[in-house]
UniProtKB/TrEMBL annotation:
<keyword id="KW-0472">Membrane</keyword>
<dbReference type="GO" id="GO:0016020">
    <property type="term" value="C:membrane"/>
</dbReference>
<dbReference type="GO" id="GO:0046513">
    <property type="term" value="P:ceramide biosynthetic process"/>
</dbReference>
<dbReference type="GO" id="GO:0050290">
    <property type="term" value="F:sphingomyelin phosphodiesterase D activity"/>
</dbReference>
<dbReference type="GO" id="GO:0006685">
    <property type="term" value="P:sphingomyelin catabolic process"/>
</dbReference>
<dbReference type="InterPro" id="IPR024129">
    <property type="entry name" value="Sphingomy_SMPD4"/>
</dbReference>
<dbReference type="GO" id="GO:0046475">
    <property type="term" value="P:glycerophospholipid catabolic process"/>
</dbReference>
<keyword id="KW-1133">Transmembrane helix</keyword>
<keyword id="KW-0812">Transmembrane</keyword>
<protein>
    <submittedName>
        <fullName>Sphingomyelin phosphodiesterase 4</fullName>
    </submittedName>
</protein>
<feature type="transmembrane region" description="Helical">
    <location>
        <begin position="774"/>
        <end position="806"/>
    </location>
</feature>
<dbReference type="Pfam" id="PF14724">
    <property type="entry name" value="mit_SMPDase"/>
</dbReference>
Amino acid sequence: MFAKETDNFMVAVQHALNQPIRTRCAELAVLLDRATLLELHNFFPILIDNIFGPQGTISWGLRTSTEENREDLRELHHFLSPCGPLFRLIYILLRDPNIKYEFSLTYLPTKIRQLLEHSSGNPFYSELVNLNPQSKQITSLLLNPFDYYFFHFAYHLVNPWQQRSGSLVTSWNTVYYVLCCDYILHFLPTDPNVKILPDIYYNGKNPNKHISPPSSSHNSPRGFSSKGLVSPIVFSKTVDDNNTVNLDRYHPRNEIWRSETVLTVFTDMWLCNDSVSQTVSNNELNDSFNKPISMRLYYNELPTGEYMRIVRVLIKQLHAFSDSSKCDDTNMSELKKISVPMIQGKFYAFLRNLIHRWPLDGSFRLVLELWLTYIQPWRYPATNLVKKINVTELNQDAEDVAFNSDKQNLHPTRDHLQFIAENLLCYVVIFEQLLPRFGRVDLVSPKMSLMLYRITKVFDQPNLPQFLKEIEQCVENRQPSPTHQKYAGFQSVLPSLSINNNWSTTLPASPIPHHAARNGNVSFLSSTVAPVDKKWSAITKQRIFDLEGPSFCYKPLFSNPPAQEIYELLSQIKKSQRLAYDLIRMKEQEEKELYSGFWGSIKYFLQSPASNDEFSLDDRKKVPIYLEVALGNLKDMFDITEEIFEDEPDTIKTANGNGFEMSHDFKFLTPEKVRSRVKTIKYEGDPDLIPIRSDENKFLVRTLYQISLQINENFGDRFYQLYHSPSYWGRFWRQILCPPITVHKYDKSIMGSPRVGVNLPPRISLRPWASYRFLGYLLFGGIVALLFGYRIDTYLAFLCSIYLLYKLMKAVPCGSSPMRHSYPTEGFGNISFNDSF
């Protein structure tokens, strides 16, 4: 009888799992409330596999469900929320501390697997490992239901089988992102008076002083101790102070073990991601070519925008979580104190590798804002952190770039000196790694100029340069000795800093820039720096040794005079500012000539030309302002008072003394060559998919695109016949339809992402109707028609008649006019005969 009821339950839940999302969540919630503990125990791993699809099977689409599917997002969010039906199931299973599930080690990052092999590994994993009784080797992790869920949830973001689906979603407000925000805010609370709900009792992680230590158990590796992240000594003092009767029930760790899990699992899974770090060996990379394509892409693809924003939310909350320990006297305070120090090394390695691999394009803003978030803990105090996640906000990731911000009063104080000292490499080395990057991009681009402005704004805020100079005095500036170079006990997983090896302050023979030659000899730091506090010396030296190894040569950021690279960047900013003004004048003149006068307005109304420029004129006008502020910030940061002039490209001397002009050598892509190609660069994708401009209505662009897409799908064959007809009506339709063209895209499903061409047939495009100028003329004409007593339908019919009459007249032949098309010449395939890149 019992077996029959169990079979009936499994049949019912399997039927529910095959339903659409809305029905599935509702039916599962009812079935889970009615099931027995044994049925829930057996069904739980099946449910988790069905939700996340860790082996590449069909999942619930947490990373593809966005606000566009509002009902699905709402149902999924309710079902998986911290107090929803799934967590009610988890807390029911936690009533039995013997319920455990195996989590494969292959899902863990390489660095974490290596950590488990050492007896001095992370104490969090000491009570989770599962040993083979014969070989004494770790075979898997044995997890309670709560841990099992969060390991799978965190792995879902880095799962190579799910990378493709996550990278295809343009909207970042997915249900997975919203759930991450909920879990981070719920299980890492900043308010000491807020308890993690529900208040449950689970003795599976409460160490008992009357029980023999877990290290003697056959399930724990030798040398491990089951104590968690917080020292048991702190707990023992708390227990003694409270004089509690039931030590199991009221053990302090019972209040924090869920926060331990969320903190450790999220940081380990996301910051030690193998697809970002350089820990993958050549053998593993070669072996990957024998694996399916989705697994091979894991070694080459960068994190998605959703990934970067989720990590940024975690960093913000950890800053507030750590800051709240100052006014927290609960058992959670000890975990808050170690939360940021425990991720410092992981985040530094993650960021260094990420910057090394990220392309030179506007998407780098995601990485930049993540870095700036981490190095500014004073911006995220516990009292000011916004805890409400507004899913309707269009761009929650956007930083306030206004010159008068509400957060201007949040600046570093001497209370933040310890954080700056412990993370000196994250300030200085990352800055030096980024500086050459801005020497290889076009600063006239609004995206690039904005990024440079953001960096200089952060580093020139009050007190920060002074604090960095003070701590830098504790670091000995020296070249590594042969003894250190031969040291084999440290294996760095960070990319080489060969890009900025010419940082002039590290090389005794570096030439002094002519701007600073009159200032005297180069010294390590300015004499205006306050006397150094020697207590930071041990911290900074130990950090450099731990993160970069004994052979690393620290390159100080501040010197007197400043490094030559600073002057080169200032000169480039000056030149880019002039070019930005020239470009603005040119575009203003183009618009004035194109749309001036009455006939120019009629021309735009009847046939609006699509601009190939990704940025509007208003965006272009912001560039000189960003560059001007960035120039002033850099000069103020490095105490530069002399005037900056535009320099000609320097002549690079070869080993034999022969010089050549770098800008004339085809092997070098200099900023001058980039700017010379600006006129030949053009958008080569689908014209209807050009990023929405500021002079267009976003809703209309998306709506009209869907309408035109539906029309083209239904009448595409007929359009093709009409367009290529040699008759008069063929000429008429060639005035209405967009000509066939060949667009290009990068196929990321193939190794190397080759550039491929796609032929677009004759088609209807309604995007010009989404222009604010078109809508303005249409509205103005409608008002005039109403004033003269005409109805709106009459007005619209008149416009259509005028438009068709205009096209009919243009279709009249006036000589030999071949059909327009942009297909590539036959025999040349996808070769593009232009100098764009």
